[in-house]
Amino acid sequence: MPASRARLATLDWQGIAASLDAGGYATLGGLLPPEECAALTQMYQADERFRSRVVMACHGFGRGEYNYFASPLPAMLAALGTLL
Fold first, then answer.
1. 73-80 long-range CB contacts below 8 Å, 24 or more apart?
2. Are residues 81 and 73 in contact, defined by beta-carbon separation less than 8 angstroms?
3. pTM
């Protein structure tokens, strides 16, 4: 994942830290190129990739849903987790 390492090096880490301190979250825009984002998006409908799905309305959290990946994580996410 040399490309990911290079992308991480270009991020504004002081701004990221300030966002975490101020709001408890930060976005890492540009971390993944569009083709990697598209590949992750395409995985969403593959139920076998996920261990559970949360439908937010069922829990009174509003609208939408999200999935928890099953192990092992997709290689690109596992590598990013290690780098981060």
1. 74/40, 74/43, 74/49, 76/1, 76/4, 76/32, 76/36, 76/39, 76/40, 77/40, 79/1, 79/4, 80/1, 80/4, 80/31, 80/32
2. yes
3. 0.69
Angle at 83 between CA 40 and CA 23, to 5 degrees: 80
Q: Is 64 left (phi over 0), alpha (psi -120 to 50) or beta?
A: left
Residue spans of beta strands (DSSP E) within 26-81? 50-55, 65-69
pLDDT band per the 50, 70, 90 thresholds, residue 31: confident
User: What is d(CA 7, CA 60) in angstroms, rounded to the nearest whole number?
Assistant: 37
Beta strands in the chain (DSSP E): 50-55, 65-69
Give the span between the Cα atoms of 57 and 55, in whole angstroms: 6
What average pLDDT does this structure show over 34-60?
89
